[in-house]
């Protein structure tokens, strides 16, 4: 296999958790709620998957558990920010702290134990003879296919369905949506919960496809990178696909360069994704300084109906 | 006589200590244009908001088509066929006009291109029928204010409303656009709809309505047929006493030129040209009014003069010397004070008390601080004195100013802006949202400034206010001053035409 | 979700009669009540302890035993208490820096990285100028540590002010960069040749170490912290600068209309915030570990966020909360002896923050009987 194909595969493998987490972030933020708890949610998803998978040996059960637990945490975030109108930044930070603490605490007993299996791959016989693609697609696992499907589904959902219209209205102008009979709070709850579950699934994918075992803090800031990716992707699922794979490639590039025997210490190569995140955000900020950025307009502000009745 | 389509009986609504609606009875018929007339704060919008489900009444009952109705939310109102066009539009800026119109629709989950095309045609046909034209497939933020209002009206029609409430619909329109709106209302009336319009402009009421209800201070005063009344009677009912519509006589006090602006060009936030070759002069002891429809550069003009916004080309001279760069501090130091458009958004810090709010502009001076330290005790007594002098009613000096009434907030703001004896005051919509008494107080303060030799640039959308106060009225359109008339010869109609971009009576468009 | 906001009130008695009147009990939201009662921080700590007790019990431990162990470990012995105070120093310095930034809503979460580069810069002094006198090495270490932290803060501030980049992301990304840089120097160029291949710089000499109080491990960094708190209090309360921060914090638009340069203030505040964290890093290497190594901070920078928030950015409160959280960290270590991971304290911290922000809001709701 040549270097490019390898890099492509590595990019997809490292990019899938980022993609899932970014999609989760997009759903949450489209509804007007900031999600800064991605790091903690990913860790909780990862640790839940590991524990349930090791204990039960059932992969599907493990994934369901990860989704369920993070969905519950998502509801906590929704309760704080939608119902109580608490500071969304602080609630997200609390989620990250709590998630990293709790995951380290409950994961202590299974730390370092390899998982009993990995994600099944989808064999596409028809694609086999195609030169690069055959090799590429033959190696993609179920969650990767799921994430690709999800990109399409979310794109269609947001732009071509009544639900999507309601979502966009709620994120941009909840007061108007409310007057039009759309249940703002309910929609926010739904998307914050669904978004958190997707971020949890991203954590599950991290341990199943990327890192072989549970380790404390194994996401190493990927949740935060996903928060940045939501902005790069300008809240658009199709763009999220490219952004996530681009960062996946950066992430694995360091590793590849090292394998090639580069003289640059690996620490600096590992810095690349973090530094590039900042630089890209700065570039986007500079380029879009005179344009609307595509940010959902009510992002970060709780909705309070005029309560003078 | 037919049964009224809307009947409200004994409606009471209080906000805290204020009774916004006091035992109000109101009725309107199908096939009539009913105007609800009253001054700002008379309670018109409150009553209509209860009809459309935004507020809930404390007491009273509402009958729609003769049946008692329970309206607890906008949704209930919509189901009963009541639709309201609010003064600040309820539109989602990033969605297209058509998407906004179908927003409340729950049916058809999938919205492919065929569905969208069908809806576009449906909406265009509806608009055509009532003479409301706008591009259906463009996002709202690209539409003009007039177009946005049309989208709002079509939205209520699309949702099947047969009782349509318009809250101060002409306040955002040019006189020409307003004419067009009245034609639309006629078509609606012919179609058997009940049209209710709140307004404080008597001329419009006389020209367009069939029946008029007048409110004053939360009470319903009278309900009359338009043909049987006249402007003078309406004015008396509205204000509660005889009013002279003529302007105050005044002594000319204008002196040396204070502010000279030449060929100013300014960019707005997204790079669009907001001011284009704008020139104006303000003299000492003169109130210069700037009239215009919102969004023609008023905001940017005020920002440039107060140092908040940089300009591209052109020249500003203030008090005899050229202004080189935009600097808020420079503007404050040279004696320009600013009463901004939205006092709670940009004029006051609601969470802080009176002392902190009064110090805004003067805390840097030696009088209030030394070596970087504030003179706490001195500033307190100074604030106490100002609060007393300007008669600001506040429980304590440290009470957060967001808890004061609108009128007292504005008094506090004026106290601050006047306290450092400005040479020029730039006042933007200074009486917005104030009741009659508070507005009169503000007018008095502006006149005092004038007689003490300061210049005032008064930017307002309220033509009556401008006519009453200004020595000269400039009309701003498309970022330039396209016309001027002085106090003696000011003519509503001509100013109205210029506000629409028509320079003279001959009707040559700009 | 039990308490619903006012508009979705739970009607207890349905409509009474035809008149359109109805009676119900509902929760009403009052946004003007911005000041929460003094006991919300205490209550949130108690509730967080209760919540985490569930997790501890699920792990087959008695929560009471664990909490008792933690408390004893942190405050029960003079050694434990000293350790708590030692941990409170970086929390106080970082928390103070965070409080300054949060006053004007600059969400710096990069204290961890700022502390790390501060420690690195201080160590650089010991490596490149090994033979200075005690006074000069401590002074230089302090200056370099502060400057490095401030620089790291600046790297968060400038993207925000000049490129509109959210400081949360920048400051967090820079934490990872700083930690990787730390790994690089302790595994690479600064590794102690006599250190049996352990990652870490050579031990500091006595001249490069901060003086300690008596024979304890409590070092003079405590004085830095207390002095910084005093200065913070005076500045916020009595100076023009403090007034400007108050104004920006209360209404940034109005502050701009008053001629205050918000960008300038963001940069100043981030320099101070980073600088204080840098001092914390310097004090940590020079006063506690006496060498640069991996994991010099067990997450002080993150814990300090809660310290600041719990203290409601109040100077005196900062002293109390940083001691409390110092105790939490020490307590977390002490339960390791009974086989529990120290991450229990991190979990507690997160839970406290959750309850705290909920508590800040919940008192704004009032039960109303509406007619």
From TrEMBL, chain A:
Subcellular location: Cell membrane
InterPro entries, alphabetized: ABC_transp_permease (IPR001851)
Transmembrane segments: 6-26, 33-54, 60-80, 136-158, 189-211, 217-235, 242-261, 267-286
Topological type in the membrane: Multi-pass membrane protein
Primary localisation category: membrane
UniProt keyword list: Cell membrane, Membrane, Sugar transport, Transmembrane, Transmembrane helix, Transport
Pfam families xref list: BPD_transp_2
Keyword presence, Magnesium: no
The keyword Nuclease is annotated on this UniProt entry: no
The protein's name in its UniProt record: Simple sugar transport system permease protein
Organism, as annotated: Paenibacillus silagei
TrEMBL record, chain B:
Phylogenetic classification of the source organism: Bacteria, Bacillati, Bacillota, Bacilli, Bacillales
InterPro entries registered for this protein in UniProt: AAA+_ATPase, ABC_carbohydrate_import_ATPase, ABC_transporter-like_ATP-bd, ABC_transporter-like_CS, P-loop_NTPase
GO terms for MF: ATP binding
The species this protein was found in: Paenibacillus silagei
Pfam family, one: ABC_tran
Protein's name according to its UniProt entry: Simple sugar transport system ATP-binding protein
Keywords on record: ATP-binding, Nucleotide-binding, Repeat, Sugar transport, Transport
The keyword Transport belongs to this UniProt entry's keyword annotation: yes
Domain ABC transporter, residue spans: 6-242, 259-503
Automatic annotation (TrEMBL), chain C:
InterPro entries xref list: ABC_transp_permease
Cellular compartment(s): Cell membrane
Pfam families membership: BPD_transp_2
Highest taxon of the lineage: Bacteria
Record carries keyword Transport: yes
Transmembrane segments: 38-58, 78-102, 135-156, 168-187, 218-236, 266-286, 292-311, 316-335, 347-365
Keyword set includes Transport: yes
Membrane topology summary: Multi-pass membrane protein
Principal subcellular localization: membrane
Key words, A-Z: Cell membrane, Membrane, Sugar transport, Transmembrane, Transmembrane helix, Transport
PANTHER family referenced in this protein's UniProt entry, alphabetically: ABC TRANSPORTER, PERMEASE PROTEIN (PTHR47089), GUANOSINE ABC TRANSPORTER PERMEASE PROTEIN NUPP (PTHR47089:SF1)
The protein's name: Simple sugar transport system permease protein
Species whose genome carries this gene: Paenibacillus silagei
Organism lineage string: Bacteria, Bacillati, Bacillota, Bacilli, Bacillales
């Amino acid at each position: 296999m040549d270097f490019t194909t390898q890099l492509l595969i590595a990019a997809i493998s490292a990019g899938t958790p980022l993609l899932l987490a970014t999609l989760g972030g997009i759903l949450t933020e489209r509804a007007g709620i900031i999600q800064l708890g991605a790091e903690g949610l990913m860790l909780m998803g990862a640790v839940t998957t590991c524990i349930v998978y090791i204990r039960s040996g059932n992969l599907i059960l493990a994934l369901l558990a990860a989704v369920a637990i993070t969905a519950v945490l998502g509801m906590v975030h929704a309760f704080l920010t939608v119902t109580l109108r608490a500071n969304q930044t602080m609630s997200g930070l609390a989620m990250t702290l709590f998630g990293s603490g709790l995951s380290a605490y409950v994961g202590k007993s299974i730390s370092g134990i390899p998982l009993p299996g990995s994600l099944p791959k989808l064999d596409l016989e028809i694609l086999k003879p195609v030169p690069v693609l055959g090799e590429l697609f033959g190696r993609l696992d179920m969650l990767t296919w799921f994430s690709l499907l999800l990109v399409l589904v979310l794109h269609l959902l947001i732009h071509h369905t009544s639900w999507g219209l309601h979502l966009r209205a709620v994120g941009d102008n909840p007061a108007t949506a409310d007057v039009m009979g759309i249940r703002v709070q309910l929609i926010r709850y739904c998307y914050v919960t669904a978004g958190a579950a997707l971020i949890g699934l991203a954590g599950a994918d991290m341990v199943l496809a990327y890192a072989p075992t549970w380790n404390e803090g194994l996401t190493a800031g990927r949740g935060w990178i996903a928060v940045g990716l939501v902005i790069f992707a300008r809240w658009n699922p199709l763009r999220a696909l490219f952004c996530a794979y681009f960062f996946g490639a950066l992430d694995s590039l360091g590793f590849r360069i090292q394998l090639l025997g580069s003289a640059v210490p690996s620490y600096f190569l590992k810095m690349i994704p973090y530094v590039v995140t900042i630089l890209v955000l700065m570039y986007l900020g500079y380029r879009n300084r005179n344009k609307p950025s595509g940010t959902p307009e009510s992002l970060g502000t709780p909705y309070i109906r005029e309560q003078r009745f | 006589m037919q049964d009224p389509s809307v009947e409200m009986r004994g409606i009471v609504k209080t906000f805290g200590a204020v009774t916004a609606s006091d035992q109000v009875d109101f009725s309107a018929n199908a096939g009539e244009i009913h105007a609800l007339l009253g001054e700002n704060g008379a309670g018109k919008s409150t009553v209509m908001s209860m009809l459309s489900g935004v507020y809930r009444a404390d007491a009273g009952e509402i009958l729609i088509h003769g049946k008692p109705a329970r309206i607890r939310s906008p949704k209930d109102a919509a189901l009963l066929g009541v639709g309201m066009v609010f003064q600040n539009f309820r539109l989602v800026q990033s969605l297209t006009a058509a998407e906004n119109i179908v927003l409340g629709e729950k049916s058809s989950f999938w919205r492919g291109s065929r569905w969208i095309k069908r809806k576009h045609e449906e909406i265009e046909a509806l608009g055509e029928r009532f003479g409301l034209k706008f591009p259906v497939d463009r996002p709202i933020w690209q539409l003009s204010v007039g177009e946005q209002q049309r989208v709002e009206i079509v939205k209520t029609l699309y949702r099947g409303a047969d009782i349509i409430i318009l809250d101060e619909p002409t306040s955002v329109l040019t006189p020409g656009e307003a004419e067009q709106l009245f034609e639309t209302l006629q078509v609606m009336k012919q179609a058997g709809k009940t049209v209710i319009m709140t307004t404080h402009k008597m001329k419009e009421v006389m020209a367009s309505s069939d029946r008029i209800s007048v409110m004053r201070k939360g009470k319903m005063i009278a309900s009359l047929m338009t043909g049987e009344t006249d402007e003078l009677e309406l004015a008396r009912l509205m204000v509660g006493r005889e009013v002279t519509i003529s302007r105050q006589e005044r002594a000319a006090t204008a002196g040396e030129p204070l502010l000279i602006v030449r060929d100013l060009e300014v960019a707005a936030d997204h790079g669009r040209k907001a001011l284009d070759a704008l020139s104006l002069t303000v003299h000492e002891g003169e109130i210069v009014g700037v009239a215009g429809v919102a969004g023609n550069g008023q905001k940017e003009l005020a920002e440039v003069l107060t140092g908040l916004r940089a300009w591209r080309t052109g020249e500003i001279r203030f008090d005899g010397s050229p202004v080189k760069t935009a600097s808020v501090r420079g503007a404050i130091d040279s004696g320009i004070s600013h009463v901004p458009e939205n006092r709670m958004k940009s004029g006051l810090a609601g969470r802080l008390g009176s002392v902190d709010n009064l110090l805004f502009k003067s805390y840097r001076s030696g009088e209030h601080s030394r070596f970087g330290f504030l003179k706490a005790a001195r500033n307190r007594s100074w604030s106490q004195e100002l609060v007393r002098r300007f008669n600001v009613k506040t429980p304590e000096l440290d009470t957060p100013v967001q808890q004061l009434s609108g009128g007292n907030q504005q008094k506090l703001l004026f106290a601050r802006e006047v306290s450092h004896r400005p040479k020029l005051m730039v006042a933007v919509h200074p009486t917005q949202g104030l009741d009659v008494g508070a507005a009169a107080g503000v007018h008095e303060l502006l006149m005092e400034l004038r007689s003490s030799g300061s210049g005032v640039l008064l930017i307002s959308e309220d033509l009556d206010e401008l006519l009453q106060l200004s020595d000269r009225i400039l009309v701003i359109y498309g970022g330039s001053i396209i016309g001027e008339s002085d106090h003696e010869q000011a003519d509503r109609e001509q100013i109205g035409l210029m506000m629409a971009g028509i320079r003279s009576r001959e009707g040559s468009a700009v | 979700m039990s308490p619903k906001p006012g508009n979705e009130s739970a009607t207890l008695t349905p409509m009474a009669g035809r008149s359109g009147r109805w009676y119900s009990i509902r929760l009403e939201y009052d946004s003007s009540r911005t000041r929460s009662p003094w006991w919300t921080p205490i209550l949130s700590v108690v509730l967080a302890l209760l919540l985490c007790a569930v997790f501890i019990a699920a792990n087959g431990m008695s929560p009471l035993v664990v909490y008792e162990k933690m408390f004893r470990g942190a405050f029960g012995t003079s050694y434990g208490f000293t350790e708590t105070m030692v941990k409170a120093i970086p929390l106080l310095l970082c928390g103070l820096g965070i409080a300054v930034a949060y006053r004007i809503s600059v969400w710096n979460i990069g204290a961890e990285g700022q502390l790390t580069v501060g420690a690195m810069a201080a160590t650089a002094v010991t490596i490149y100028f090994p033979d200075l006198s005690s006074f000069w090495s401590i002074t230089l270490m302090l200056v370099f540590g502060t400057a490095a932290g401030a620089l790291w803060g600046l790297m968060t501030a400038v993207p925000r002010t000049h490129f509109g980049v959210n400081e949360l992301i920048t400051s967090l990304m820079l934490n990872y960069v700083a930690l990787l840089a730390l790994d690089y120097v302790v595994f690479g160029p600064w590794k102690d040749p006599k250190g049996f291949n352990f990652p870490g710089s050579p031990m500091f000499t006595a001249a490069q170490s901060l003086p300690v109080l008596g024979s304890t491990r409590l070092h003079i960094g405590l004085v830095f912290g207390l002095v910084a708190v005093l200065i913070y209090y005076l500045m916020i309360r009595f100076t023009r600068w403090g007034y400007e921060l108050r104004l920006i914090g209360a209404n940034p638009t109005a502050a701009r209309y008053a001629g205050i340069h918000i960008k300038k203030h963001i940069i100043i505040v981030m320099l101070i915030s980073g600088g204080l964290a840098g001092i914390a890093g310097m004090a940590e290497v020079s006063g506690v570990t006496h060498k640069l190594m991996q994991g010099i901070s067990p997450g002080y920078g993150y814990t300090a966020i809660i310290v600041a928030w719990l203290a409601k950015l109040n100077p005196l409160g900062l002293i109390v909360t940083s001691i409390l959280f110092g105790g939490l960290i020490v307590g977390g270590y002490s339960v390791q002896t009974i086989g529990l991971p120290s991450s229990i304290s991190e979990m507690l911290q997160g839970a406290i923050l959750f309850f705290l922000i909920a508590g800040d809001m919940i008192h704004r709701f009032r039960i109303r009987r509406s007619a």
